[in-house]
Amino acid sequence: MPISRPPRFPQQGPAVSPAVPVVSLPAVSLPAVPLPAVSVLLPLMPERPEQLPRYARLVHDGLAQRLWQGQAVTVDPSHGFAYAAGAGLRVPVGLAVTLMPMRHPFQAAMEARSLAATTGHPVIYGMGPGPELFQRLLTGAPYPSQLGAVRDYLTTVRGLLDAVPDASTARYAAGLPLPALSHPPVLLGLGVLRPRMARLAGELADVAITWLAPAAYLAGTVTPALAAGAARAGRATPRISALVPVSLHRPGRNPYRVVLGSAYGHLRAPHYQDMLAKAGVTADPGDPRAAAKALIDSGCFLYEDPAGLRRRLQEYAAAGASEVVLNLTGVHAQDGADAAYEELVEILAAVAGAADRAAG
Protein backbone atom coordinates (compact mmCIF):
# COMPACT_ATOMS: atom_id res chain seq x y z
CA MET A 1 0.00 0.00 0.00
CA PRO A 2 1.23 3.51 -0.70
CA ILE A 3 2.36 5.24 2.47
CA SER A 4 0.75 8.56 3.24
CA ARG A 5 3.11 11.52 3.16
CA PRO A 6 4.22 12.39 6.72
CA PRO A 7 3.84 15.92 8.00
CA ARG A 8 6.75 18.26 7.30
CA PHE A 9 8.79 19.64 10.19
CA PRO A 10 11.15 22.60 10.24
CA GLN A 11 14.63 21.49 9.27
CA GLN A 12 16.62 23.23 11.96
CA GLY A 13 17.77 21.24 14.95
CA PRO A 14 17.36 17.58 15.87
CA ALA A 15 14.09 16.60 17.53
CA VAL A 16 15.87 14.28 19.93
CA SER A 17 19.38 14.74 21.21
CA PRO A 18 21.57 11.77 20.24
CA ALA A 19 22.55 11.53 23.91
CA VAL A 20 18.99 10.79 25.05
CA PRO A 21 18.64 7.07 25.84
CA VAL A 22 15.79 5.05 24.37
CA VAL A 23 13.37 3.66 26.96
CA SER A 24 11.46 0.47 26.18
CA LEU A 25 8.31 -1.10 27.47
CA PRO A 26 8.99 -3.98 29.89
CA ALA A 27 11.45 -6.08 27.95
CA VAL A 28 11.41 -9.74 27.16
CA SER A 29 13.55 -11.61 29.68
CA LEU A 30 16.63 -12.58 27.69
CA PRO A 31 18.40 -15.86 28.21
CA ALA A 32 21.38 -16.58 25.96
CA VAL A 33 19.45 -16.27 22.70
CA PRO A 34 21.11 -16.30 19.29
CA LEU A 35 20.27 -13.71 16.71
CA PRO A 36 17.31 -14.55 14.47
CA ALA A 37 17.77 -14.89 10.73
CA VAL A 38 18.13 -11.39 9.30
CA SER A 39 16.47 -10.43 6.04
CA VAL A 40 15.89 -7.15 4.22
CA LEU A 41 12.87 -5.25 2.96
CA LEU A 42 13.17 -3.27 -0.25
CA PRO A 43 12.79 0.19 1.32
CA LEU A 44 10.91 1.79 -1.55
CA MET A 45 8.03 1.29 -3.94
CA PRO A 46 10.07 0.70 -7.11
CA GLU A 47 9.38 2.63 -10.28
CA ARG A 48 12.01 0.72 -12.29
CA PRO A 49 13.02 -2.93 -11.93
CA GLU A 50 16.67 -1.82 -12.01
CA GLN A 51 16.19 -0.61 -8.43
CA LEU A 52 16.04 -4.19 -7.11
CA PRO A 53 19.31 -5.95 -8.02
CA ARG A 54 21.63 -4.30 -5.50
CA TYR A 55 19.29 -5.42 -2.70
CA ALA A 56 19.00 -8.90 -4.18
CA ARG A 57 22.79 -9.08 -4.25
CA LEU A 58 22.89 -8.66 -0.45
CA VAL A 59 21.00 -11.95 -0.23
CA HIS A 60 22.94 -13.56 -3.08
CA ASP A 61 26.23 -12.73 -1.33
CA GLY A 62 25.09 -14.14 2.02
CA LEU A 63 24.65 -10.92 4.01
CA ALA A 64 20.90 -11.46 4.39
CA GLN A 65 18.61 -14.47 4.23
CA ARG A 66 15.73 -13.21 2.11
CA LEU A 67 14.62 -10.17 0.11
CA TRP A 68 11.12 -8.94 0.93
CA GLN A 69 8.76 -6.48 -0.69
CA GLY A 70 5.48 -5.04 0.43
CA GLN A 71 2.51 -4.55 -1.84
CA ALA A 72 3.38 -2.11 -4.61
CA VAL A 73 1.21 -0.47 -7.23
CA THR A 74 4.09 0.66 -9.42
CA VAL A 75 6.41 -2.19 -10.48
CA ASP A 76 4.65 -5.34 -9.30
CA PRO A 77 6.74 -7.14 -6.66
CA SER A 78 6.69 -10.49 -8.46
CA HIS A 79 7.81 -8.83 -11.68
CA GLY A 80 10.64 -7.09 -9.85
CA PHE A 81 11.79 -10.36 -8.29
CA ALA A 82 11.64 -12.01 -11.72
CA TYR A 83 13.77 -9.20 -13.16
CA ALA A 84 16.42 -9.78 -10.48
CA ALA A 85 16.34 -13.52 -11.16
CA GLY A 86 16.80 -12.87 -14.87
CA ALA A 87 19.83 -10.73 -13.99
CA GLY A 88 21.40 -13.78 -12.33
CA LEU A 89 20.26 -13.00 -8.77
CA ARG A 90 17.96 -15.93 -8.02
CA VAL A 91 17.46 -15.49 -4.28
CA PRO A 92 14.85 -16.38 -1.65
CA VAL A 93 12.05 -13.81 -1.56
CA GLY A 94 9.03 -12.91 0.52
CA LEU A 95 5.92 -10.77 0.09
CA ALA A 96 4.62 -8.81 3.08
CA VAL A 97 1.88 -8.70 2.16
CA THR A 98 -0.13 -8.98 -1.03
CA LEU A 99 -3.59 -7.49 -0.60
CA MET A 100 -6.46 -9.86 -1.20
CA PRO A 101 -8.79 -7.44 -3.04
CA MET A 102 -6.22 -7.10 -5.84
CA ARG A 103 -6.27 -10.73 -7.01
CA HIS A 104 -8.45 -13.82 -7.03
CA PRO A 105 -7.01 -16.79 -5.08
CA PHE A 106 -6.40 -18.57 -8.38
CA GLN A 107 -4.15 -15.72 -9.50
CA ALA A 108 -2.44 -15.68 -6.09
CA ALA A 109 -1.69 -19.42 -6.19
CA MET A 110 -0.47 -19.23 -9.78
CA GLU A 111 1.71 -16.21 -8.97
CA ALA A 112 3.19 -17.79 -5.84
CA ARG A 113 4.32 -21.01 -7.46
CA SER A 114 5.50 -19.18 -10.58
CA LEU A 115 7.68 -17.01 -8.36
CA ALA A 116 9.10 -20.10 -6.63
CA ALA A 117 9.89 -21.66 -10.01
CA THR A 118 11.47 -18.43 -11.28
CA THR A 119 13.69 -17.80 -8.26
CA GLY A 120 14.52 -21.45 -7.64
CA HIS A 121 13.92 -21.00 -3.89
CA PRO A 122 11.04 -21.44 -1.44
CA VAL A 123 8.80 -18.37 -1.44
CA ILE A 124 6.99 -16.82 1.52
CA TYR A 125 3.80 -15.55 -0.08
CA GLY A 126 2.19 -13.26 2.48
CA MET A 127 -1.46 -12.25 2.20
CA GLY A 128 -3.77 -9.92 4.05
CA PRO A 129 -7.15 -8.22 3.62
CA GLY A 130 -5.84 -4.65 3.69
CA PRO A 131 -7.73 -1.71 5.20
CA GLU A 132 -11.51 -1.66 4.91
CA LEU A 133 -11.36 1.51 2.81
CA PHE A 134 -9.09 -0.27 0.33
CA GLN A 135 -11.55 -3.17 0.17
CA ARG A 136 -14.40 -0.76 -0.52
CA LEU A 137 -12.51 1.06 -3.27
CA LEU A 138 -11.63 -2.15 -5.13
CA THR A 139 -14.59 -4.43 -4.43
CA GLY A 140 -17.41 -2.01 -3.68
CA ALA A 141 -17.75 -2.91 -0.01
CA PRO A 142 -15.64 -4.13 2.92
CA TYR A 143 -15.59 -7.84 3.60
CA PRO A 144 -18.58 -8.71 5.82
CA SER A 145 -16.18 -10.66 8.03
CA GLN A 146 -12.47 -9.93 7.87
CA LEU A 147 -11.51 -13.23 9.46
CA GLY A 148 -14.01 -15.15 7.35
CA ALA A 149 -12.69 -13.65 4.13
CA VAL A 150 -9.11 -14.44 5.12
CA ARG A 151 -10.03 -18.00 6.09
CA ASP A 152 -11.71 -18.61 2.72
CA TYR A 153 -8.91 -16.93 0.76
CA LEU A 154 -6.05 -18.88 2.37
CA THR A 155 -8.01 -22.12 2.23
CA THR A 156 -8.65 -21.64 -1.49
CA VAL A 157 -5.03 -20.75 -2.25
CA ARG A 158 -3.82 -23.75 -0.24
CA GLY A 159 -6.23 -26.05 -2.03
CA LEU A 160 -5.08 -24.85 -5.44
CA LEU A 161 -1.42 -25.31 -4.52
CA ASP A 162 -2.20 -28.78 -3.17
CA ALA A 163 -4.00 -29.73 -6.42
CA VAL A 164 -7.38 -30.21 -4.77
CA PRO A 165 -9.84 -30.92 -7.63
CA ASP A 166 -12.23 -28.22 -6.44
CA ALA A 167 -10.71 -25.68 -4.03
CA SER A 168 -13.85 -23.54 -3.83
CA THR A 169 -14.94 -22.04 -0.52
CA ALA A 170 -18.01 -20.06 0.48
CA ARG A 171 -16.60 -16.81 -0.89
CA TYR A 172 -14.34 -17.94 -3.73
CA ALA A 173 -15.08 -20.23 -6.66
CA ALA A 174 -12.03 -22.26 -7.68
CA GLY A 175 -13.31 -25.26 -9.57
CA LEU A 176 -10.51 -25.09 -12.15
CA PRO A 177 -7.38 -26.82 -10.82
CA LEU A 178 -3.90 -25.56 -11.64
CA PRO A 179 -1.89 -27.78 -13.99
CA ALA A 180 1.07 -29.67 -12.60
CA LEU A 181 4.25 -27.63 -12.18
CA SER A 182 7.54 -28.53 -10.50
CA HIS A 183 8.66 -25.76 -8.15
CA PRO A 184 10.24 -25.19 -4.72
CA PRO A 185 7.85 -24.96 -1.78
CA VAL A 186 5.44 -22.06 -1.35
CA LEU A 187 4.99 -21.02 2.29
CA LEU A 188 1.71 -19.20 2.85
CA GLY A 189 2.09 -16.18 5.10
CA LEU A 190 -0.58 -14.15 6.82
CA GLY A 191 -0.23 -10.59 7.98
CA VAL A 192 -0.85 -10.61 11.73
CA LEU A 193 -1.49 -7.63 13.98
CA ARG A 194 -4.01 -8.75 16.57
CA PRO A 195 -4.81 -11.91 18.57
CA ARG A 196 -7.75 -13.21 16.51
CA MET A 197 -5.79 -13.01 13.26
CA ALA A 198 -2.83 -14.63 15.02
CA ARG A 199 -5.05 -17.54 16.08
CA LEU A 200 -6.29 -17.89 12.52
CA ALA A 201 -2.70 -17.86 11.26
CA GLY A 202 -1.97 -20.62 13.74
CA GLU A 203 -4.71 -22.69 12.12
CA LEU A 204 -3.94 -22.01 8.46
CA ALA A 205 -0.64 -20.28 7.68
CA ASP A 206 2.97 -21.40 7.46
CA VAL A 207 4.34 -18.00 8.48
CA ALA A 208 2.90 -15.18 10.60
CA ILE A 209 4.12 -11.82 9.32
CA THR A 210 4.11 -8.90 11.75
CA TRP A 211 4.72 -5.23 11.02
CA LEU A 212 5.53 -2.52 13.58
CA ALA A 213 4.90 -4.93 16.46
CA PRO A 214 7.37 -4.65 19.38
CA ALA A 215 9.09 -7.75 20.72
CA ALA A 216 7.20 -7.64 24.01
CA TYR A 217 3.89 -7.74 22.11
CA LEU A 218 5.08 -10.74 20.11
CA ALA A 219 6.05 -12.54 23.30
CA GLY A 220 2.92 -11.72 25.27
CA THR A 221 0.23 -11.74 22.58
CA VAL A 222 1.16 -12.97 19.11
CA THR A 223 3.20 -16.06 19.96
CA PRO A 224 0.65 -17.48 22.46
CA ALA A 225 -2.24 -16.81 20.05
CA LEU A 226 -0.38 -18.54 17.22
CA ALA A 227 0.27 -21.54 19.43
CA ALA A 228 -3.38 -21.68 20.51
CA GLY A 229 -4.61 -21.63 16.92
CA ALA A 230 -2.15 -24.31 15.88
CA ALA A 231 -3.13 -26.51 18.81
CA ARG A 232 -6.82 -26.16 17.91
CA ALA A 233 -6.04 -27.28 14.35
CA GLY A 234 -3.66 -30.04 15.45
CA ARG A 235 -0.69 -28.67 13.49
CA ALA A 236 2.74 -27.20 14.10
CA THR A 237 2.91 -23.57 15.18
CA PRO A 238 3.79 -21.29 12.24
CA ARG A 239 7.04 -19.43 12.41
CA ILE A 240 7.14 -15.65 12.77
CA SER A 241 8.77 -13.22 10.35
CA ALA A 242 8.82 -9.80 12.03
CA LEU A 243 9.20 -6.73 9.84
CA VAL A 244 10.93 -4.19 12.05
CA PRO A 245 11.56 -0.54 11.15
CA VAL A 246 15.10 0.49 12.09
CA SER A 247 17.66 3.23 11.76
CA LEU A 248 21.08 3.78 13.24
CA HIS A 249 21.73 6.40 15.89
CA ARG A 250 23.51 9.17 13.98
CA PRO A 251 24.84 12.49 15.34
CA GLY A 252 22.45 15.21 14.21
CA ARG A 253 19.82 12.81 12.90
CA ASN A 254 16.24 13.63 13.73
CA PRO A 255 14.75 10.21 14.48
CA TYR A 256 11.20 11.58 14.57
CA ARG A 257 11.36 12.39 10.88
CA VAL A 258 12.76 8.95 10.12
CA VAL A 259 10.01 7.24 12.12
CA LEU A 260 7.25 9.20 10.41
CA GLY A 261 8.78 8.59 7.00
CA SER A 262 8.38 4.89 7.73
CA ALA A 263 5.20 4.62 9.75
CA TYR A 264 2.96 7.68 9.43
CA GLY A 265 0.55 5.97 7.02
CA HIS A 266 0.25 2.99 9.35
CA LEU A 267 -0.40 5.25 12.34
CA ARG A 268 -3.50 6.57 10.59
CA ALA A 269 -4.96 3.09 10.00
CA PRO A 270 -7.51 1.87 12.59
CA HIS A 271 -6.20 -1.71 12.65
CA TYR A 272 -2.67 -0.50 13.41
CA GLN A 273 -3.97 1.88 16.05
CA ASP A 274 -5.79 -1.03 17.70
CA MET A 275 -2.67 -3.22 17.62
CA LEU A 276 -0.58 -0.46 19.15
CA ALA A 277 -3.18 0.09 21.88
CA LYS A 278 -3.12 -3.63 22.67
CA ALA A 279 0.67 -3.36 22.91
CA GLY A 280 0.32 -0.50 25.40
CA VAL A 281 1.48 2.16 22.94
CA THR A 282 -0.32 5.49 22.61
CA ALA A 283 0.61 6.96 19.22
CA ASP A 284 -1.83 9.67 18.16
CA PRO A 285 -1.26 10.59 14.48
CA GLY A 286 -2.71 14.00 15.28
CA ASP A 287 0.43 14.66 17.36
CA PRO A 288 3.16 13.34 15.05
CA ARG A 289 6.13 14.16 17.29
CA ALA A 290 4.60 12.43 20.30
CA ALA A 291 3.57 9.47 18.15
CA ALA A 292 7.08 9.09 16.76
CA LYS A 293 8.57 9.27 20.26
CA ALA A 294 6.11 6.62 21.47
CA LEU A 295 7.16 4.24 18.68
CA ILE A 296 10.82 4.65 19.60
CA ASP A 297 10.27 4.40 23.36
CA SER A 298 8.15 1.25 23.02
CA GLY A 299 10.53 -0.59 20.71
CA CYS A 300 8.15 -0.53 17.74
CA PHE A 301 10.84 1.41 15.88
CA LEU A 302 14.45 0.52 16.67
CA TYR A 303 16.66 3.61 16.81
CA GLU A 304 19.98 2.30 18.08
CA ASP A 305 23.70 2.08 17.61
CA PRO A 306 24.87 -1.26 16.13
CA ALA A 307 25.39 -2.91 19.53
CA GLY A 308 21.98 -1.80 20.74
CA LEU A 309 20.37 -3.01 17.54
CA ARG A 310 21.89 -6.47 17.98
CA ARG A 311 20.42 -6.65 21.48
CA ARG A 312 17.00 -5.61 20.18
CA LEU A 313 17.11 -8.28 17.49
CA GLN A 314 17.86 -10.83 20.19
CA GLU A 315 14.68 -9.68 21.92
CA TYR A 316 12.72 -10.64 18.83
CA ALA A 317 14.31 -14.08 18.80
CA ALA A 318 13.46 -14.53 22.47
CA ALA A 319 9.88 -13.45 21.71
CA GLY A 320 9.47 -16.22 19.13
CA ALA A 321 10.53 -14.64 15.82
CA SER A 322 12.68 -16.89 13.65
CA GLU A 323 13.32 -14.08 11.18
CA VAL A 324 13.62 -10.31 11.46
CA VAL A 325 13.22 -8.24 8.32
CA LEU A 326 15.05 -4.90 8.45
CA ASN A 327 12.83 -2.07 7.23
CA LEU A 328 14.72 1.14 6.34
CA THR A 329 11.86 2.88 4.54
CA GLY A 330 12.15 5.80 6.96
CA VAL A 331 15.83 6.33 6.16
CA HIS A 332 15.00 6.12 2.47
CA ALA A 333 12.21 8.69 2.84
CA GLN A 334 14.38 11.07 4.86
CA ASP A 335 17.88 10.66 3.41
CA GLY A 336 17.42 9.04 0.00
CA ALA A 337 18.11 5.76 -1.77
CA ASP A 338 21.90 5.61 -1.47
CA ALA A 339 21.90 6.54 2.21
CA ALA A 340 19.33 3.84 2.99
CA TYR A 341 21.28 1.21 1.08
CA GLU A 342 24.58 2.14 2.70
CA GLU A 343 23.03 2.10 6.16
CA LEU A 344 21.49 -1.30 5.49
CA VAL A 345 24.89 -2.67 4.46
CA GLU A 346 26.40 -1.23 7.64
CA ILE A 347 23.75 -2.87 9.81
CA LEU A 348 24.09 -6.23 8.07
CA ALA A 349 27.87 -6.15 8.49
CA ALA A 350 27.52 -5.36 12.20
CA VAL A 351 24.97 -8.13 12.71
CA ALA A 352 27.08 -10.64 10.76
CA GLY A 353 30.14 -9.72 12.84
CA ALA A 354 28.20 -10.33 16.06
CA ALA A 355 26.98 -13.70 14.79
CA ASP A 356 30.51 -14.72 13.79
CA ARG A 357 31.85 -13.79 17.23
CA ALA A 358 29.09 -15.76 18.93
CA ALA A 359 29.78 -18.79 16.76
CA GLY A 360 33.50 -18.55 17.45
Helix content: 40-55%
User: Span between N and C termini?
Assistant: 42 Å
Radius of gyration: 20 Å
**What is the SS-derived class?**
alpha/beta
Number of helices: 13
Spatial ordering of strands, largest sheet: 1-2-3-4-5-6-7-9
| Assembly state of the chains shown | single chain
Low-confidence stretches: 1-31
Shape: globular
Series of secondary-structure elements, N-terminal to C-terminal: EHEHEHEHHEHEHEHHHEHEHH
Largest sheet: 8 strands, parallel, barrel
Number of β-strand runs: 9
Structure in words:
The chain has 360 residues and is α/β, with parallel strands linked by helices. Helix content is 45%, strand content 14%. It contains 13 helices and nine strands. It has helices at 53-60, 77-86, 105-119, 132-139, 146-161, 195-204, 215-233, 255-267, 270-278, 288-298, 306-319, 329-335, 337-359, and strands at residues 37-41, 67-69, 93-99, 123-128, 186-191, 207-211, 239-248, 302-304, 321-327. Strands 1-2-3-4-5-6-7-9 form an eight-stranded parallel barrel, surrounded by nine helices. Helix 3 links the parallel strand 3 (93-99) and strand 4. The termini are far apart. Mean pLDDT is 91; it is low at 1-31.
